[in-house]
Specification:
Shape: globular
Helix content: 10-25%
Structural class: alpha+beta
Strand order of the largest sheet: 8-7-2-1-11
Number of helices: 2
Strand content: 25-35%
Order of helices and strands: HEHEEEEEEEEEE
Radius of gyration: 21 Å
Distance between the termini: 56 Å
Number of strands: 11
């Protein structure tokens, strides 16, 4: 009898916003952030697809749940916008957004652009949710090594 009363009390507290039950204690929510930007692809910028795809933005899910990136966007300061297709990013995993062309999969997506997006000397990337909420930014203001951890 006391066991049932205790369970009922704990359930009532959980429903009222109190302490969560172990079954309700879910993993941390998805938290997608910009991980790294490779803004200056190696070699001469001649616009080959190989060179365009060596320019990329990597996002990482730092949370405890998979994130649905559908309609999330990355954009530069000149407002070049890439919107994600239906793709899920697992906890702890990264996805690379390449400038050139290729076949999308779980870890690599492609903007299918014919020229570079990220300026080598100064630019920035902004990540927004499908609702337009800014979730992260990363910028650089000098040539540096051609990449930046964010």
């Amino acid at each position: 009898m006391i066991g049932r009363a205790l369970v009922a009390l704990v359930c009532a507290a959980a429903l009222a916003g109190g302490t969560a039950l172990p079954a309700q204690a879910a993993a941390k929510p998805a938290k997608v952030r910009i991980y790294k930007v490779y803004y200056d692809s190696p070699g001469t910028d001649r616009g080959s697809n190989h060179s365009l795809n060596a320019e990329w933005v990597a996002l990482k899910n730092y949370g405890g749940r998979s994130a649905n990136l559908y309609q999330y966007s990355v954009r530069d300061r000149s407002n070049h916008i890439y919107r994600f297709p239906h793709v899920w990013l697992k906890p702890g995993h990264r996805i690379y957004v390449h400038t050139g062309s290729g076949t999308n999969n779980a870890t690599h997506v492609y903007q299918h652009r014919g020229w570079y997006v990220w300026n080598n000397t100064s630019d920035g990337v902004t990540l927004r949710t499908r609702y337009g909420t800014k979730t992260d930014t990363c910028s650089w203001s000098h040539r540096g090594r051609g990449y930046r951890y964010c």
